[in-house]
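The instructor's notes for this session suggest beginning with a concrete chain rather than abstract definitions. Hand out the sequence below and ask the class to guess, before any prediction is shown, which regions might be ordered.
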Amino acid sequence: MESAAVKTIAILLVAAILLYAGDWLVLRGREARGSAYSSVQVQEYLATPLKGNKAGYDYMGTISQTCDRSLFPHGGQPPCWWLRRHRQQWEN
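After discussion, reveal the predicted structure:
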């Protein structure tokens, strides 16, 4: 006998897989129409380690970063909805 918790986890896992696959299919459909990607202006900062466990921060400028018009990241690009909420990018 399976417990209710195992059934619930299995249903959630299948739902997550179907959601990701559906998101991927929608993105491929948008690629065919030429509307799958967008760009967002992002501010880049560089964190440099200094002596005494301190860090220096430098503003590197604003760049235009490509993003996917999807719910999940695909092909190494972040989704546009996430990038619009995280416009400051830090590099070490």
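Then share the key points. Residues 2 and 72 are 31 Å apart (CA to CA). The chain has a mean pLDDT of 93.
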